[in-house]
Design brief:
Helix content: 40-55%
Structural class: alpha+beta
Radius of gyration: 32 Å
Distance between the termini: 41 Å
Strand content: 15-25%
Shape: elongated
Strand order of the largest sheet: 4-11-10-7-8
Length: about 280
C-alpha cells in the first residue's frame, strides 16, 4: 500500500467508513510502514478528526415541519375550491374539467423529501470540500516534511535559498509512462556528509528488479560504475544520498533492470544532463 493509499484509508478510517476488508488492508499496510510513515499517518488522522468536527452535521430545521404541514393544508384547500368556468364560443359558460391532480399526501411527501435532499446535498458538498482541502494540506505538509528530512534541516536551507544549489530534473524516455526524479547538487556539499541528493517518486514497483543511477553516453548506453543502486518501495517521496562524484557535463540515467543483470540503453527510463556551468 502506497503512502497515498494509506493517507486515503486513514481519512476514511477516521470517519468510520472502511468495511472489514478495507480496514484489515489498512491495518496491515500501517503495520508494514516505516516508523516515520506511521507517525505521519497518526498525525494526519488527528488533524482529520479535528477537521471533521467542523463539518456540517445538522438535522432538518425545526421550522421544516410546520412549513410542510402548512403547504399540505394549502394543497387541500386548493383541492376543495369551487370549479371555475370559462367563456366558450357563443358566450356559453363552459365548465372547466378538473385535471387529474396529485394526492396532497404525495405532494407533502415530495416537498419533505426535496427539502431533506437539499440539506443532504449541502452536507455532502461541504464534506467533500473539507476533505479535498484537508488532503491538499496534508500532502503539502507531508512533502515539506519529506524534503526537510531528506535534506536535513541544515541543508534544506541551501536548497531553498542558496543560488549555488543546482537542480537537475530527469525526463522520461520514450515509452516510459511513470516515474519522476530530480537531483540536487551544491559545490559546498562536496566532501561533506550531504553529497548530492536524488529524489524519486511514482516509480513502478516490480518484483525482482532494481533501479540504478548510472552515467550514460550520448546514445544512453551505461558507462563506468553504477553510482547508486536502490529499490523503490512506493513511498510518497524517496530521498537518496549520492556519495559518488557528480561532475559537470555528465549525462545521468536511471535504469530499471533485473538484479545481477548488466544494464543496457533499453533499460533507461529517466535521463538528465548535468549543466556544464
Amino acid at each position: 500500500m502506497t503512502l497515498y493509499e494509506l493517507l486515503e484509508s486513514a481519512h476514511l478510517d477516521a470517519m468510520g467508513l472502511l468495511d472489514e476488508t478495507e480496514q484489515k488492508a489498512f491495518e496491515d499496510g500501517f503495520r508494514g510502514a516505516s516508523p516515520g510513515v506511521q507517525a505521519q499517518i497518526r498525525a494526519e488522522q488527528s488533524r482529520w478528526a479535528r477537521t471533521s468536527a467542523r463539518m456540517i452535521d445538522e438535522e432538518p430545521p425545526a421550522s421544516l415541519k410546520p412549513r410542510v404541514l402548512a403547504r399540505v393544508a394549502e394543497a387541500i384547500e386548493d383541492e376543495a375550491a369551487p370549479v371555475a368556468g370559462a367563456i366558450g364560443r357563443g358566450g356559453v359558460i363552459l365548465p372547466i374539467q378538473n385535471a387529474s391532480r396529485v394526492s396532497p399526501l404525495w405532494r407533502a411527501a415530495a416537498i419533505g423529501f426535496a427539502t431533506a435532499a437539499v440539506i443532504s446535498l449541502a452536507t455532502v458538498l461541504e464534506q467533500g470540500y473539507q476533505a479535498k482541502k484537508f488532503n491538499e494540506e496534508a500532502l503539502g505538509d507531508g512533502l515539506i516534511g519529506h524534503l526537510t528530512i531528506g535534506f536535513g534541516k541544515d541543508y534544506y536551507h541551501d536548497v531553498v535559498f542558496d543560488s549555488n544549489t543546482k537542480q537537475c530534473v530527469f525526463h522520461r524516455t520514450p515509452g516510459t509512462t511513470v516515474g519522476a526524479a530530480s537531483l540536487f547538487i551544491n559545490p559546498d556539499w562536496k566532501g561533506s556528509r550531504m553529497g548530492a541528493r536524488l529524489f524519486c517518486e511514482k516509480l513502478a514497483v516490480e518484483p525482482g528488479k532494481e533501479y540504478r543511477l548510472v552515467e550514460v553516453d550520448a546514445n544512453n548506453k551505461p558507462i563506468g560504475k553504477t553510482l547508486k543502486e536502490f529499490n523503490y518501495d512506493g513511498t510518497l517521496l524517496m530521498s537518496l544520498k549520492i556519495d559518488a562524484a557528480i561532475s559537470r557535463g555528465m549525462r545521468l540515467a536511471i535504469v530499471s533492470v533485473a538484479r545481477g543483470v548488466e544494464a543496457t540503453a533499453a533499460d533507461v527510463i529517466l535521463i538528465a544532463d548535468i549543466p556544464t556551468a
